[in-house]
Amino acid sequence: MNRYILFILLITVTSVAWGQSTRVRGKITDAKTGEPLPLVNVVFKGTTVGVTSDFDGIYILETREKVTELQASFVGYESQTVKVVPGSYNALDFQLVPYTVDLEEVNVTPGENPAHRILKNVSRNKKKNNPDELSLYKCSTYTKMELDLTNINPYFKNKKLQKNFGFIFEHMDTSVITGKAFLPIMISEATADYYHRSSPGFSREIVKASRISGIEEDYSLAQFTGHLHVNVNLYDNYINIFEVKFASPLSEHGLLYYKYFLVDSMQINGRKTYKIRFHPKGTSTPVLDGEVNIDSASWALQSAHVKMLKGLNVNWIRHLVIENTNELVNDSVWFPKQDKLFADFTIVMSDSAKLVSFLGHRQIDYTHVRLNEPIPEEVLKLDNNVIISRDVLKNDEQYWDTVRPYELSVKEKQIYGMVDSVKNVPLYQNIYTVISTILGGYYDTKYVGIGPYYKLFSFNKLEGCRFQLGLRTTSDFSKKIRLFGHLAYGTKDRHFKGGGGLEYMFKDLPTSKLTLSFKHDVVQLGAGVNAFTEGNILSSILSRGNNDRLSLVNQGDISFEQEWRQGVSNTFAAQVRNIFSSRYVPFIRPDGKEMSSIQSLSFRLRTRLSKNEIIVRQTFDKFSLGSDYPIFTLDLSAGVKGIFKNDYEYYRLEGTVMWDIGFPPIGTSKFALSGGKIFGKVPYPLLKLHEGNATYFYDPYAFSCMNYYEFASDLWASLMYEHHFKGFFLGKIPLMKRLKWREVFIFKALIGTLEKKNNGSLEDTRAILLFPEGMSSVSKPYFEAGVGIENIFRILRVDAIWRLSHRHSVPGQKVQNFAVNFSINLNF
Predict the structure, then answer these.
(1) Which residues pair with 307 in a beta bridge?
(2) Its domain of life (predicted)?
(3) What distance, in Å, lies between the first and last C-alpha atoms of the chain?
(4) What CATH topology corresponds to 22-100?
């Protein structure tokens, strides 16, 4: 599991510096005053590769061209030229000497900032210059990613670990971004063909080859080694990186965020180019700092060098740098030539921190651009935006030598061997196992996983102390079939419980999977989709004291999931269930007699629709990383009567729409709108039991102030809404700004009705079962709202939530009108 989390970090990260390029970093100051000099031109002599210093006087430069000298020049100061060591890292500071020139009187009159005039022309010509707006194109891409360790303890070599990892230190290098030594631990390469059409919208990437050094090569990871998951387009108003929406310097609203300075005009490849440096007006919203070069003839972006400003309310990233280079294609259209992105991931944000941190690099090179060529029919018919073949993993060095846009040096080739050697060290394998167990929940031997560890022990009122042992097979046992099972025992009910089953994977991309399972165990009816599962120790520790309404069930399930194409899937399922009556959840008929159990046989068809959803796929599991578009689910269920003693005929229709919408710079809204209808007469365990929360842990898809078995419906609609302001208000308060806390607003609503034949709370009820004491219809709408603070210590969220209706207790239900919930969130 941990290797997938690393890839989540890397799917938006590109490279700025590779081992054998010439890299220079330094600071420029006034030789007399020592003050930093911003906007100084620094260029590799004899080339057009250059940059201007930022407002702290810092500059960074990198090139693979053959260079020997670096020159710094600034109006009013003497130019300086220094030697550089090619193919390595150079730390070069400049102290520029001012000179005095007698000038005649100059009259300065107010007028429009010339940089603003240029940017207006850039906006007017965005449609023709933005590559996303091109009607048709095809190109080849080469993508290289690297993950490095930095801030390695200098005494590391003298410890016992030296015998395991001592061979790696000869491969250390220095980052041009941070100026600190780093050690590569993972490298990946991929080559692909990319097809694009603007109307109707179409993007498809055919990954032809991929390889990963440093971790176990995995076919499913190849989907993240291409172009589609790292499309940083400066023409967009906001640039989404790590779910942080940075205001683009070329945004239509750029003047709200930045001050612009026209610092130079120069000739690049015979074309007049304007160099514009921009600097943020404030830091209460995510902003960047850097420069853009604009072609004077077409008003297109020629290149850009930007970085994240320090002090922003962004987690885990100490440094972030984006570089973009475009070139003319067919002497008419500007098209990306190279995109780079660098990120320094760390727990402690201070540059002086000594803790080990990660450097992520990713670089994309674009070649063989073809404009206005029809997309082949066989490409249009493919069913995923990212297509990979089973032979995509290639370790043929000769192949990679032919597809790379540059030749690797001897030292770079040795780094690949070093990175692959690290994973064979026993100590590394032990560390890998510990991390994998923590993140995945199972301790994996070669063929069997033991766990999950968080269910080994728990406690509740029904079972008392619960002990559980679970096993499942690993992908080394089989990549087609996974067996699983568990055994549990409660000290209070003195009852053994358990379950088991199998999953058979016909195909993993697109998914085609059969699952069979059976369990004799306790369940919490009416729990939310994000609630702790039964037997989780956290549900016991964080209980509010009303976790006693568990039910014992015998349940058999069979399901088949078929993903027809990316974003379109169906699940066909059947379930046999026997829910037993208990002293906590009794089944009492209107005549006062108790039913021992409720039996049902149901069939279900689930349809799920999404667009451009990012999916992490493992051998048997897959996880959604979200989408910019709504995600729809529709469930159709039918209960079949006549198989068991007391089964029921009914039909259930339920739909959900989930959508995360960005509203930069004021944050992101998260909606979950659902509703449904049950046709037929059923006992209350088969009604819609609305999602309560019996713990202090926050569940976004449950009602925080609602108890289990408080409301039931056969026709209902609900809304779960959160808005994350991401520090928009608190970031403007001087003292609060340093805490980097973020505001959250919460609103949840529910309305539902019950037909008389299903309403077991009526005195003259005609329902099959009487409702548990305190349970009723929710025909009077239920509302709750709250406010929260997230990003406390960068991981903790605390919410205060008020119940706005149904505030009076009723027999059997002690109403909670106010709740404090907390949760753990790892957000950028």
Answers:
(1) 289, 321
(2) Bacteria
(3) 20
(4) Immunoglobulin-like (2.60.40)
